[in-house]
Amino acid sequence: MTDKKHKDRKEIKALEQELQELSEQAEKLGQENQDLLAKLQRVSADYANFQKRSAKQISEAISFERERIVKALLPVMDNFEHTMAHAESAEDVEAVVKGVKIIYDQMVDVLKSQGVEQICALGEQFDPALHQAMLQKEDEEKEDGVVLEEYQKGYRLNGRVIRPAKVVVNKLTVDTTEAEVAEDEYTEEENDNGEDDIEIIQ
Questions:
Q1: Are 121 and 166 in contact (CB under 8 A)?
Q2: Which domain holds residue 124?
Q3: Model's pTM, two decimal places?
């Protein structure tokens, strides 16, 4: 009987010890959970502040960039006003045209300073990535697919096309192309025959 009581006490003591350990683990896990929750709340608050700061910084950057562009355009507007003010009383048309040309060049310089460049079109081979064909014409003196006219200039911004050039493209008919090929072949044959004749004379 005494042994049984002693055994029961040992089991109870072991259970109490195990319960104590489990209680300590639970308390530790609860504390870790609180710490993680606090960290999550701090990170969430930091991220919210970061979003607010980023939105504000982006808005300020856009406003600053707009202001910089407008300031660059103001001298162009000033020159336009001066030219228009003197255009009515100007007796020399060439002087007015010269003034407009100066303003145009100034505007081109402003655009270049912003990373804008004109797309070369006239006399170039048609490129659908750079040009938009508005019309086709035939000019036998020019190569097939060459841009003959430019309706509207195209532009790139930092290397990216923001507006293709509107152009007229040379389109030779099949007969014209075949005639040119035949003419080239005939010219080559004549040159070959001429060389043969020279060799015979020698």
A1: no
A2: 117-201
A3: 0.55
